[in-house]
Specification:
single chain; seven-stranded mixed β-sheet; three-stranded antiparallel β-sheet; globular
């Protein structure tokens, strides 16, 4: 099996439409995707979702049928999304995910095949889809390879990374990943990029993975748009200055819609059956982050988006 860009655009024609509205994951990965999509397709940022709360503009609610959920996977059938979580337990994919451009769904990868999981970020998937190479600049590469700790996954899972390079042909993977598995690259991450993030207050945690040579943890940044707007602005301006991507205007006057996020053993879902569990628990979005865990969010609505409800 080999993915082809033209087939992706035929299956998901909205991937290259211009002037669409998007909701992004409320973290570094969502922000850098928003910068890319605004610059190349003029997509407009209308809100954020942190898997517990949706922050959204009035325009976003008005355009709820046409919103694109970026670096996310949501279940309502009217929801188009691009993201890379594993969502299938044993080959069964709920109907709501048919409008998700998710490499793991398209490659039919299940919860029993984590060794084959898509190892790169949503941003890198978008770069491949649109066949856009980044500037030959060290900081530009660091910013891109930092997304979803792709550089660490490339080090730790070399066979799977090479497998996905073959699955996603016709891209300059050699240029993107050049030197990633070296002490020198790790030092640049640790001495150039991460202190910069610290100075911008754009660090909220660290990943579990550690680098091969210097035992470095990747930094993470998850934000709350109610009080982190200054940090969000600093990051998207950094992307703009370094990568040449026009920063998206930040949404204002956001409404918040609170959900209920839970974690249960994957064995429970297997016992009940995925379809029944999703229905019983009114699941809006979910992911399988490990072979034993099932994370899900409910907004108390069945078969439709919480955006359908009236909000004060």
């Amino acid at each position: 099996m080999v993915f082809k860009q033209n087939e992706m655009f035929s299956k998901f024609p909205w991937l290259r439409e211009k002037n669409l509205s998007m909701i992004i994951s409320a973290d570094y990965d969502g922000l850098i995707c928003a910068s890319f999509l605004h610059h190349h397709l003029n997509w407009q940022l209308e809100g954020y979702y942190d898997l517990n709360t949706i922050w959204i503009t009035e325009k976003g609610i008005h355009e709820k049928q046409n919103l694109i959920w970026v670096d996310l996977n949501i279940l309502p059938k009217q929801g188009k999304a691009i993201g890379g979580h594993i969502v299938s337990i044993s080959g069964d994919v709920p109907p709501g995910f048919q409008s998700s451009c998710n490499p793991n769904i398209l490659a039919e990868i299940t919860a029993g095949e984590f060794q084959r999981k898509f190892p790169f970020s949503t941003l890198i998937y978008l770069l491949w889809l649109h066949n856009i190479e980044i500037k030959n600049d060290l900081l530009a590469r660091l910013l891109v390879l930092h997304s979803d700790a792709t550089w660490l996954k490339y080090q730790q899972y070399p066979e799977n990374s090479k497998y996905w390079e073959q699955l996603l042909p016709d891209y300059n993977w050699k240029g993107l990943f050049s030197g990633v598995n070296t002490k020198g690259f790790e030092r640049r991450m640790d001495e150039d990029l991460y202190p910069l993030f610290q100075s911008m207050q754009a660090v909220s945690g660290k990943s579990k993975l550690r680098s091969k040579h210097l035992n470095i943890c990747s930094k993470q940044f998850q934000f709350n748009p109610d009080w982190d707007e200054d940090i969000i602005l600093r990051l998207i301006n950094l992307f703009g200055n370094t990568l040449g991507w026009t920063p998206p205007p930040l949404p204002s006057t956001l409404k918040s819609i609170n959900g209920n996020r839970k974690k249960v053993p994957l064995a429970l879902i297997k016992e009940i059956g995925i379809s029944q569990f999703l229905k019983d628990n009114r699941v809006f979005s979910y992911a399988i982050p490990s072979p034993r865990i099932f994370n899900f969010t409910s907004f108390g609505t069945v078969n439709k988006s919480p955006l359908e409800k009236k909000h004060g």
